[in-house]
Amino acid sequence: MQHTFHQELDVLYGKEEVDSFFFMAIDALYHVSRMALALKPNYTVDDFNPILNVLELLKQEKPIQYILGETEFCGLPFKVNGHTLIPRPETEELVEWILSEFNIQNSEIKILDIGTGSGCIAIALAKKWPKASVYALDVSADALKMAKQNAALNKVEVVFVEADILGMQGKIPSADEPRLKLNELKFDIIVSNPPYVRELEKQYMKPNVLNNEPHLALFVKDENPLVFYKTITEFAVRNLSKNGLLFFEINEFLAKDTIQLLVANHFSSIELKQDIFKKDRMIKGVKTGD
Fold first, then answer.
1. pLDDT tens digits for 6-20?
2. What confidence score (pLDDT) does residue 179 get?
3. Least reliable range by pLDDT among 133-137, 167-171, 236-240, 277-281
């Protein structure tokens, strides 16, 4: 069967990626790990239909994560579907950067993840910092439904808020104040991986992304590509605590513009980081003043 995968898919994806697809599918469908398969090279199954269905969908360039309905992020299991972006290695790097800035396992800080999607950033932080109060916002009710499932799957508590950051109307139910507004809270960390791909960049995207992942979470208008960054930065000015940190995943082509946005809003100690592919991908700023 592995040979069939390579025959059918190598021209689309390349040998290494096809190997990855095959072992992911075998593990998910038949609960046989790559290591176990290596120890039993003649292993066979009674029903080939599930793996053949995966092969057919891969030939249609549907992402393997959507086919299997699951993926991994920061070593944690996540469910995904067409309402959520597929968590990426670059975003894992962003989480690792946030974690490296603190040694706060026992600190009761507040964190807000804006545009949470599958919940991967918020849940990974909540898992690492169980005493933190983690909030996660998204405009999509369908995405939040999946994020809540992922929080339960990973046994963490996250307060999920359905709201549009561009017109903040989110409400958080609370034992003390049933209609407490999100914008009345102060956070120690605000992080966001908002839509940042310009319409003009669609032509450079792979079909498996362009034709499957939610455009609401991907694209912004060419004439206003930093609309989310501007709104979130202004929100952070009001809602970060003193010396609070703002983290963004960014469009590699708009790094200078995004830095200037933080400078204009009086953030200090601004840092730009590249991802594993040597692309400008992450920015951190420190709020100055109260």
1. 999 999 899 999 999
2. 44
3. 167-171
Query: What is the reported pLDDT for 220?
Result: 80
CA distances from 78 to 123, 146, 285 (A): 10, 9, 29
Q: All domains of the chain, ordered by start, with CATH?
A: 2-60 (no CATH), 81-287 (3.40.50.150)
For 134-145, write each residue's pLDDT tens digit: 999 999 999 999
Give the predicted TM-score (pTM) of the model: 0.89
Contacts of 218 (CB under 8 A, 6+ apart): 85, 195, 197, 209
Contact between 202 and 210 under an 8 Å Cβ cutoff? The reply is: yes
